[in-house]
Amino acid sequence: MLLGSHMRRLREARGITRDAAGYAIRASESRISRMELGRLSFKARDVDDLLTLYGITDEAERAALVDLAREANLAGWWHRYADVLPNWFATYVGLEGAASFIGAYELQFVHGLLQTEAYIHSVISRGTKGADAADIDRRVALRLERQKILFRENAPDLHVVLDEAALLRPYGGAGVMRGQLQHLIELSERPNVRLQVVPFSFGGHCAESGAFTVFGFPDDDLLDVVYLEQLTSALILDRREEVHQYVRVLEELQRQSLGPEESRDLLRGRLRLS
Questions:
Q1: Do residues 143 and 115 touch, judged by C-beta distance below 8 A?
Q2: Average pLDDT of 150-160?
């Protein structure tokens, strides 16, 4: 995505159409569009040819962009889990790892980055009927690996709004849920985690369309994107107007929810009752 945004900006600065750029590398206009959106990878050779077309002669700039193309084509850590990772969800994991901001609304489960190992195991076991123990363990390991982003040096800011239903729906029994509630309390005190709960007592709210995730990125050229998961696939929205609607709903949800400290109090209350 970062490389694509750079290449688009260079092309537009020279007034070159996508069709002309595609002709230069024996590709279609739609292929250039998808590469600039980060949906297809650039070959290093194609980047080199396009930079010549765009009049970029500075060797350092050319080398940096060609190197970025090579880096973008390297397999991410999650490819080790390709046997249990659907292609459409691999995109989510990549976005998650690249984001500087992750905002989410969840109503069925506790958010995946905030789940305990026991809770993960229960969710995955229930959701993958017929899977053998080794397959389930691989899926659990993948989710635990994802959670490491919250503790890295450049950790993203995670803002999660949980519907109270996610706290009341038991996974794995009382002991697992007690551990999960305690885990949520502890993680919510981290400086990069903001956890809010929408209690039933608040009635209806603005997230009537269900769960969603908003990703923001550190590079100013990269626009926010929205991820919507379905049963067998996912949608990634990047049109500015659509993304803005979800960002607005997330902000409204945060205003309608209990604040972070009040949400911790609710979690402590649920823990005492469990």
A1: yes
A2: 96
